[in-house]
Amino acid sequence: MGDLRLMKGNEVVAEAAIRCGCDGYFGYPITPQSEVMETLMLRKPWEETGMVVLQAESEVASINMLYGAASTGKKVFTSSSSPGISLMTEGISYLAGAELPCLFVNVQRGGPGLGTIQPSQADYFQAVKGGGHGDYKLIVLAPASVQETNDFMDLGFELAFKYSTPVMLLTDGVIGQMMEKVELSDFKPRWTDEEIERISGEWACLGKKDRPRHVSTSLELDSEKMEQNNHRFQAKYQSIQENEVRYEMLNCEDADYVMVAFGSSARIAQKSMEIAREKGIKVGLLRPITLFPFPIKQIEELAGRVKGFLSVEMNAGQMVEDVKLAVNGKVPVEYFGRYGGMIPTPGEIVTALEQKLIGG
Amino acid sequence: MDIKEIIKPENLVYEKNKVLTDNVMHYCPGCTHGVIHKVIAEVIDEMGIQEKTLGVSPVGCSVLAYNYIDIDWLEAAHGRAPAVATGAARVNPDKVVFTYQGDGDLASIGTAEIMHACNRGENLVVFFVNNAIYGMTGGQMAPTTLVGQPTATTPYGRDVELHGYPLKITELIAQLPGTSFVTRQSAETPGAVRKLKKAIRKGFENTVNKKGTSFIEIVSTCNSGWKVSPVQANEWMKENMFPLYPLGTMKDQDKESDEQYKVK
C-alpha cells in the first residue's frame, strides 16, 4: 500500500509528476488548474529530485519550452485549461510533427472564447482530432477520478516514450478541483544521462558526439519525404489504435441500452445507471479511458446486441459522432449533455435515456 | 609546377573548420548568413564545445541553419526560439545553448519570448540577424524596416502613420537586468568579421561560465529583398542602417544583482 492521501486532482497532477521521475514543468496560471504549478512551487522538487519548475510568460512560451526540453529526451510536461490549450495548439502540432514524447494536462472549462471557469468537456474534438494544423493525433487519456489522475501521469509518460508522441491527459474542472482519496505512486528516480542515452539516444539532441547530428524538427521541404513522414505518423497512430485502447464496461453483459461517457460525465452516468436499473431498465455503461484510441471494436460488438446508445457528455455533442461512426447505423445513437460549465444531474440523464431511446 | 605539388599538408595556410558542414548553402549570393554561420562554427570549434552545444534555429531564411553547423539542433516555431532554448537549457544546465534568429522572428512575432528570456537571464547566446526585411517570404516589411524603405508590403516606403516606427529592440534588451552582454556588430568587411568573431567568442564564453543572456545583433543586408546588388546593399546598409542601428557594445557586465528589485 502506497501513501494514502485526501487530495485535489490538480495537486495530484503535481505530486504524481514528481513521483514518476519527471524532469521539468513549464506552465502558466489559468483557472481551474492553477493548483498544479502552485503545488509544484510549494513542493520545490528541484531540491528533492532535481526537477525543474518554471512559470513561463505565456502558454505559447510554455509549450515551446516543453519542445526544447523534450528534444533532449527529458520527461517534461505542462498543464493548462481550455483557452490556454488553444494557445498551445501551434506548439502541440510542432511536437507531434517532430515526434517528441511529452505530456500535457488539459483541465477543461466551458467555452468557447473566454467562456467560463466551470467544468466542461467541450475540448473533446480539439483533443482527439488533432487540434492544431496537419494530420496528427495525440494519445488522449481521460481520468474519471483523482486516483486515475495519479495513475495516468506515469502511464502518459510511458506511452509518450513508447510511441515517441505527445500525450494529453484530458480532465476537467470537476476532476481537477475535487478532493478524493488517492493512493500515491511510489517514487521513481529521474532518468540518468546514461538511461536517457539508452532510451532516446537515437534521436534526442544530447550534443553531437561520434554520430550524425540530430535535428529536432517538423520541417521537411521535400514533399515526397514529407509524405513519407506522414505515412510513418499514420502507421504509428494505427499501431496505437490496435494496441492501446483502454476502457471500462459496467453492467454491459445483459444491457438493452448502453451509455457511453468519459471522465466526470462517466461518474455521473454511473449513478444514472444505478437509478435506471432500480427502475428495471437494463442499462450499462461504457467508459472510454483512451479517447484516442477510441474503443471502436467494443462499441461495434455492443451494437450487435443492444437496442441503442446514449452518449453523455458535458458539451453540445462531440463524442457522439465517434459513437455513431463505430455503431455504423446498426442501432439508434442519441446524445444528452449540459454545457457552458453546467453539469448534468443523474436524474436528467435517466430522463434523457427514457425519452430519447426507450420511449422513442 | 604541378598543382599536386602545391596541395600538400605542409603548404596549408587556411582550412575550413570541421564544425562547418560541406553542404552547399541555400543563401543568396551576397548574403551574410553564410559568413555568420562560418564564424559561429569556428568559435565552437576553437572552444572545443561541439559536443555540448545545442543550436535553436528560427523560421525565416536561416530555418535550415541546422544543415550547415555540425551540432545537434532544435528547429523552433516562428519567434519561439528563446522559449525552446529556455526549455533545453533549463533541463540541461551543462549544455551551451544558442538561438539564431532574424528580425521578423525575434523582433515581431517573437517579441514576448525574447524579452522574457533575456529578462529571466536565461543562460543563452542569442544571435539576432537584422537585415530590415523578411527575406524568406519574399521581402515584406520587418519590424526593423526603415521609414521610407520600400518592401513588398510597403511598396511606397514605410510610413509611420500606417506602419509605426522601426523597432530598436537591442536597445530595449540592453535595459533588461538578465542580460550580461549586449552588442551590435556587422559582417560586411574582414575587420567587421574579426570584431564579430570576438563578440561571438565572448557570448559563448559567458554561456559556459553561466553569466546569463548574451545578445549579439548583426546588422546585415538582403540584396535580394532590397533588390540591389550585393555591393550596393553594403553601401545602403552603411548609409542607412548604421546611423539608426549604431554598431558597438551597449553592455558588458555581470547580470544585475537583485538588490534594487527586492521588497522592502
Task: Explain what you see.
The complex is a heterodimer of chains A (360) and B (264). Chain A has 360 residues and is an alpha/beta fold. Helices cover 43% and strands 19% of the residues of chain A. Chain A has helices at residues 9-19, 35-43, 45-48, 59-70, 82-97, 124-128, 146-163, 173-177, 193-200, 223-243, 263-278, 296-303, 319-327, 346-358; strands at residues 4-8, 24-27, 52-55, 76-80, 102-108, 139-141, 166-172, 179-183, 215-216, 247-250, 257-260, 283-288, 290-292, 308-313, 333-337. In chain A, strand 6, helix 7 and strand 7 form a beta-alpha-beta unit. In chain A, helix 4 packs parallel to helix 5 and helix 11 (263-278) crosses helix 14 (346-358). The longest helix of chain A is centred in the middle third of the chain and has 21 residues, at 223-243. Chain B has one domain (25-259): Thiamin diphosphate (ThDP)-binding fold, Pyr/PP domains (Rossmann fold, 3-Layer(aba) Sandwich). In chain B, strands 2-1-3-4-6-5-7 form a seven-stranded mixed beta sheet, sandwiched between helices. The mean pLDDT of chain B is 96. Chain B is 36% helix and 16% strand. Chain B starts with a helix and ends in a 12-residue tail after the last strand. Strand 9 of chain A pairs parallel with strand 2 of chain B, so a sheet runs across the interface.
